[in-house]
């Protein structure tokens, strides 16, 4: 069957191939442009928010939300190019949105609270906060939860809505700094090394409480590598005091400031 015969058959069916081809081309152009715009906006938003100290998780979260909004708008524009009934479409979308919102209202509540926390920034990653009976260092903000590392090293996931609506105490003051250490321990068993490090940190003034436990990063036959991150008063004397105290109890060890 040649092209003329196909076109004649489509016309008898009430379909004009030229306007249809134009509509399809316009729909593909709209969808392609929307996907490209969504990708560009997501990258730009993530880069912008990261520079404003939103944190990587927060920047990714908002960037994906912006990208999804652009893709949905492009999809609606494509349906409109095919002559979709906007009244029926909007009615369907409204009903679907209400149904989905009711089904995942807790997730949406925590998502919105997370976005508000990122905008208002009552704390930053690394700050020591207290919410209800949870006291620890902020590790990040995800879609549903704020991640807090407690003093005993446990990772606590607090719903964002709880963090946003409850009384929040931020124990990190402006005059503090983060001290990050790499400690290579030799000639000591791991439990003994952990005990000595914990004792030094508990006895040293100028450290913000709670003090996190050292984290084991690698173990070999001769060396155990610990990493330690603590908040201290912004004073070089305190930093030097911490290093001296650790060196005095960890014989034959290497301590480096990261």
UniProtKB/TrEMBL annotation:
One of its GO terms (molecular function) is mechanosensitive monoatomic ion channel activity. It is found in: Membrane. Residues 106-170 form the Mechanosensitive ion channel MscS domain. The keyword Electron transport does not apply. GO terms for cellular component: membrane. It holds the Pfam family MS_channel_2nd. The chain crosses the membrane at residues 20-41, 61-80. Keywords: Membrane, Transmembrane, Transmembrane helix. It is a multi-pass membrane protein. Belongs to the MscS (TC 1.A.23) family. This is Mechanosensitive ion channel MscS domain-containing protein.
